[in-house]
């Protein structure tokens, strides 16, 4: 899977998060092994679990990672500070890999379309940004991967709780 940068975001959550992870089955703008997560206000370590990127589900909250190729992502409880929440997922169509640009275009369109239904306000009116994981050519061809996972985040910092219906 690949994760790509949203139209206006630089998700300042992590400078290294140029938003383009590459999974050995997915590409995204996140790196692969999760550094210890800490609560920014208390400094206490937050429990996170490395989870297979292909098992992400809507409502999962996660932190970014530090490599460009990922197979696992650091899932955390949404009540704890986190960088992203999965807000939508969908399958791309086709037998043959359509190319990185076509995958990116379709993923961006699908995630943008679902944004306001999750947040409760249009993307243009929202303070939040999105990015996404998409299939790589290898995961498409070798693993029959067509899944796009849309992630919402805040360029101004960590999130606490779900962004479902926040209407901001």
From TrEMBL:
Residues 59-153 form the Septum formation-related domain. InterPro entries: Septum_form. This is Septum formation family protein. Residues 1-28 form the signal peptide. Keywords: Signal.
């Amino acid at each position: 899977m690949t994760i790509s940068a949203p139209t206006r975001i630089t998700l300042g959550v992590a400078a290294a998060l140029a938003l383009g992870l590459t999974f050995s089955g997915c590409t995204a703008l996140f790196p692969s092994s999760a550094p210890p997560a800490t609560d920014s206000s208390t400094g206490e370590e937050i429990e996170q679990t490395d989870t297979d990127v292909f098992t992400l589900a809507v409502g999962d909250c996660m932190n970014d990672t530090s490599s460009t190729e990922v197979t696992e992502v650091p899932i955390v409880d949404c009540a704890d500070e986190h960088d992203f929440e999965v807000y939508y997922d969908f399958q791309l169509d086709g037998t043959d890999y359509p190319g990185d640009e076509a995958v990116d275009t379709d993923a961006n369109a699908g995630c943008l379309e679902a944004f306001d239904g999750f947040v409760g306000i249009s993307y243009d009116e929202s303070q939040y940004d999105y990015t996404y994981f998409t299939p790589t050519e290898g995961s498409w061809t070798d693993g029959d991967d067509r899944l796009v996972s849309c992630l919402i985040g805040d360029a101004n910092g960590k999130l606490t709780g779900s962004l479902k219906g926040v209407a901001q």
